[in-house]
Structures are given as structure tokens and as C-alpha cells.
Amino acid sequence: MSLTPVQQSAYNDIKSKLDNGGWFNTVTHDEVNDVAAKLKGLSATDADAVIDEMQRNGELDRFASEAVDGSWFGNGGYTDNERRDMFTDLAGKLDGDSLAKVSNAFAKASSGEDGYNRVGELADAVASHASSAAKVDYVKALAAQSTDGKGLDGASFGGSWSREVDAEASAIGKVIGSMRGAQAEAAFGALDQDQLRAVMNTGIDQSNQYSQGGVITSFDAKGFQSVMDAAVSTTNADLKARIFDAGADALRTVRDTQGVGLGQNSPDRNETLSAVTDSMTKLLDSDTAGIARELTYNTETQDGSDLAAYAQVMIADGKEAKLGEQMARLQFGNDLQGDPIARLNQTTNVNGQERRENAGTLGYFTGAIYAGAAAHSKDVKAQQEVVTAVLKSVLTVVDKAGVGGKAVGTAASVGKEWVQFAVRAAIADPGATAAQKLERAALPQDPQTGELGVGDPVADAFNTTLSRVQRTAEP
């Protein structure tokens, strides 16, 4: 595509400023500022065209190299403030593809942490100043580079260090974290599952300091939390389940890091683990029924491992009550106003066959809670205490005025009473194992006959997913 006269003139001026051919023809600090001024004076359309032309002809890489040049005597690149001002201007008018080209040029211009930081600076500018469309296209353009897994490392006094981060994954996380609703959903949709995992893992910013005394590991979960906040604002349950799955990988990384011990220490492990689980809880609470349903029936997550890992950490952190709230939502619906008997019997048509997804989802969740409890402690009594705490929370939620109450009719009131009876009976049975308590409390029970308050199809759907998770979950 040919340039307009205005674009061609700007490109020629910039090329001449960057010409370092011949003896003593070094690009000066004033000249790189002239380039920034020239770009700033262009319209969005013209700036896009010029940046694209620079990239095609190798001038964009040269510009980035000169922009970060640390030479003295007036021959150096931008100061930190000048570079950020230039990034702000470009972020406000370039399209996403051109912004990604600028990012790649600056990534190549500096190695190690410097390159990581330059990519991050531009991402900060994009997050604050780019249009929503440009942000989505920027994410799309950088997505393939987010799984490079290069990381950072270097020498330090008396040892060495490493950071388990990726520059482009971090940049994507910063930009998605600035988005909400449909725009955030579009940006998330540009990432495949491996790329999404890379963004979430980079979001916990794991750093390791190595010395003769061992390893000190630290985390910073602000990036993770920012991306999760964006996810909460979306409405697609399947997307939220994918994000929960990716977040579970980061959760395991923190969980499996030793807190305090001989040769390895992570002073902020517990704090980070709480921050990660709190963000995952916000996501799950935003649509408990929908997300749990997708986790149950998506092939990547149907073994229950992700939800079990989450439950294990929640239990370790003393948050059994929250698990109970979530279980109650699966029995009564997100608004806690439904008839559990009718809800569990609802069917969905799948290739001409009926599937009772609500019953299956409840079985899945029940199995995952037990798997989490079992991973938390092998002691039978401790497992019973954990499950009892979960069920007491279920009962507290169900007992609240209005839950399954008169507003939705007599049938729902009966369903509420039958769930209450099942939960109380499970709690009161001293001989029941943790798994038995959960299973008995999940489905409504007729107080008059002591029989299940649902038919075989509901029980079968519940037991199928419960059994699968019990067999296959690996928290």
C-alpha cells in the first residue's frame, strides 16, 4: 500500500534522523526527540501508516534501538519520561497491530529485564490510552508470543536470580485487566488455553533468589488479580470456566511452593495464596451455577482436579463456609430462590438425548469438595470436621428467609424443607464418612419416608459425575 504525500514526507524525515551512516554520524538525543515530535504531529491514520512502513523497511527496529541507547554526550536515547510520553502518544492513536509492532521492536532493542520493562511500559500506555478495539487487536497480535516461556535470570551479589514471567504475557494481562464486559470478553477470546495459562502464570510474578543458603521465592499477584477482575465482568460462563482452569495452574504453583523450610523459603506464600483464591472465588461467585456446569461438562476440566485444588486451598485457609454457599447455589440456583427438586430434574437436549446438567453439576461439585478435603488431610476425623463446616454453611444459607420461600410457591418451600432435612441428617450422623455426609446432604430427602426426594434420572446424573471426580480428581 503506497503512502500519501504527508505520510511519505514524515517517513523520509524520520529515516533521515535515524541515519547513522558514515564517520561520526551518530544519532543524537535531539534527533530521537525529533522523531517523537514528528510522530506526535501525525493523525492516527498517518501515524499507523508511517509505523507500518518503518517496520517493513527495518526502520522501526533501528528507532527502538536508538530510543534506548544509553550513550553519553548528547548521543543517547530518551529519558524515562520522554519514552513514556512517546508511548502514551502512540497508544492513543495507533491500531492494535501497529502497537504490537512497536512492542516487538522495543523488546528486541533491550535484553533481559530492560526489554521486559519496555514492553511493560508500552502495555501500561495501551491499557490507559488505547481504544477498546485497539486493545483487542493488540492482544490478538501478541498472543502467539505469550507462550515463549523465556523468563528472566541474572547474577546477583553472592548468587543468582530468576523470574518466571513472559513479557508479552504480562503485557496482555495488563491490557485485559484494564477492560470490562464485552470488550474484555473479546480480548479473552483471542487467547487459546495455553496462552491464557501463560497470562495467569505470569500474573503471579514468581521470583527466585538463589544463594549458598538455598532459595527464597517471592510472588506478586497484582497482575493475576487484575485479569480475574476483568473476567468477573464478563457474562460467558464457558469463558469464565476456561479462566478458572487457567487460574488453577497458578494456584498450584503457589500452593506447591514451600513456605518456610530448610533450604527453601517463601515468606509471602500464604498471603499470595489467599489473594489468588480470593480472586478465583470472586470469579466463581459471579456465576456459580454456570461456571460449575461448564467445568463439569468441558472435557479438559471434567475430572474435577481444578475445583478440587481450589477447594483444598480454601479448606486450608479456613474458608469452608464459602464452599457451603457455593454448594447451596447449585442446589437452589444462583439467586437461591429456586425449587431444588424441579431444578435438579431440568433437562438439556444434547444431540437428541436428555442431560440433567444441574444434577450432574451438583455431583461434580460434591466430589470436588471431598477430593479437596482428602488432599488437605488424610485424617478421617479431620475430613469429617471440614465437611461438617461446609454443610453447616449450606444450612445457614438455606435457612435464610426467602430462600426457596413463598415467593416462588409451595413446591419450592417443600424442596427447601427436604434439603434442610437432608443436610441436618448428614451433619448429625456421627458414623458417616466425609464423603457419605456430602453425598447425603446434596440431594433432597423426604422427611416422612427418609427416601430421596428425586427420581432415578436425577440420582443417576448426580452419581455419574460424583463417581468420575472421586476416581479421577488430582488436586
Instruction: Tell me the count of domains.
Output: 3
The tally of beta strands, per DSSP, is 8
Low-confidence stretches: none
Termini separation comes to 54 Å
* Range of strand content: 5-15%
Could you estimate the helical fraction of the residues in percent? 55-70%
Tally of helical segments: 23
Strand order of the largest sheet: 1-2-3-4-6-5
Largest sheet: 6 strands, mixed
Q: Give the overall shape, derived from the CA principal axes.
A: elongated
- Averaging pLDDT over every residue, what do you get? 93
**Structural class, please?**
alpha+beta
Any idea what the radius of gyration is? 28 Å
Keywords:
23 helices, 475 residues, two-stranded antiparallel sheet, alpha+beta
Task: Summarize this entry quickly.
This protein is of the alpha+beta class. The protein has helices spanning 5-17, 29-40, 44-56, 59-67, 80-91, 96-109, 112-129, 132-142, 167-177, 181-189, 193-202, 222-232, 237-255, 269-286, 288-297, 305-316, 320-332, 340-344, 357-376, 380-399, 410-428, 434-442, 456-472; strands at 152-156, 159-163, 207-211, 214-218, 260-261, 264-265, 348-350, 353-355.
